[in-house]
Automatic annotation (TrEMBL):
InterPro entries: Carb_Metab_HTH_regulators, DeoR-like_C, DeoR_HTH, NagB/RpiA_transferase-like, WH-like_DNA-bd_sf, WH_DNA-bd_sf. Keywords: Transcription, Transcription regulation. This is DeoR/GlpR family transcriptional regulator of sugar metabolism. Residues 5-60 form the HTH deoR-type domain. Gene3D superfamilies: 3.40.50.1360, Winged helix-like DNA-binding domain superfamily/Winged helix DNA-binding domain (1.10.10.10).
């Protein structure tokens, strides 16, 4: 019995570390034991310094390390380029556009270099570098404190600027995104800023390649106002997209050229027409 308990506790730590927050109810169902047993496990793991208790569950003491933007820029390059190309096609002449920090949004900025008659505001140093020599665009920098890892501005200066502006469209990046919780980010300043960005815009898009779907590497969340649009790549399987559609999120799947595509069949099954 003790050996089974040790294995279960080791698995609880692994799940909390790889998946983020773990609730008592979820763990009880996963391991087919009572809630009381799970609470005793969490109490012991907390005493050992392996977990931190939260209301109704637990979280890893050390969250996933956050990759820098430079580390992420080459990941899923083709998927990000396709997402960026589709997103660029949605923007009309004369519109005001708000661009978040992140590698996929930076790819969108690159696609907009040939555009004219746009007002582009951004919290991203990378976007500014991408557009700094494009004279046909009106570019506004929402300054603040620079987060070096994300190359994005955050904090009260950024938030105050946002409160005085409105936009036709906002394009947000994500470390992870789920249907029930929204965008997962590394810290609360990022989540508050993204919520303000969504509120200030008529239409909200989340640009996230397939590997980001259902991912919860951190413990800070952006609650997005409905409706919003998830734009992802054709590598996303049906089962990863279904929860978003069920929550009323508009789901757009695109190929590497930015054209509408079908998601991958679930477990090799053909997609119904």
């Amino acid at each position: 019995m003790s050996r089974n308990s040790d294995r279960r506790r080791a698995e609880i730590v692994r799940l909390a570390t790889t998946s983020g927050l773990a609730s008592v109810e979820e763990l009880s169902s996963t391991f087919d034991v009572t809630s009381s047993t799970i609470r005793r496990d969490l109490a012991r793991l907390t005493a050992q310094g392996l977990l931190a208790r939260t209301y109704g569950g637990a979280m890893a003491v050390v969250a996933h390390p956050e990759d820098s933007l430079r580390q992420r820029v080459g990941d899923a390059f083709e998927a990000k380029r396709g997402i960026a190309r589709w997103a660029a096609q949605q923007i009309g002449a004369g519109e005001s556009v708000l661009l978040d920090a992140g590698s996929t949004v930076a790819a969108l900025a690159h696609e907009l270099r040939s555009s004219t008659q746009l007002l582009i505001a951004t919290t991203s140093l990378t976007v500014l570098k991408e557009l700094d020599d494009v004279e046909g665009l009106h570019v506004e920098c929402l300054g603040g404190r620079l987060r070096h890892l994300s190359q994005g501005f955050v904090g009260p200066v950024t938030e105050t600027s946002l409160e005085r502006m409105s936009f036709d469209r906002v394009f947000l990046g994500a470390d992870g995104v789920t249907a029930d919780r929204g965008i997962c980010e590394a810290d609360l300043q990022q989540t508050r800023l993204k919520e303000l960005m969504a509120r200030s815009s008529h239409k909200t898009y989340v640009l996230a390649h397939a590997a980001k779907l259902g991912r919860r590497p951190f413990h800070a969340w952006v609650q997005l106002p409905r409706p919003w649009t998830l734009v992802t790549d054709a590598g996303a399987p049906e089962e990863a997209l279904a929860p978003f559609a069920a929550e009323g999120v508009e789901v757009v799947v695109v190929d590497a050229e930015g054209q509408i595509a079908k998601p991958q069949p679930a477990e090799g099954r053909p997609i119904a027409p």
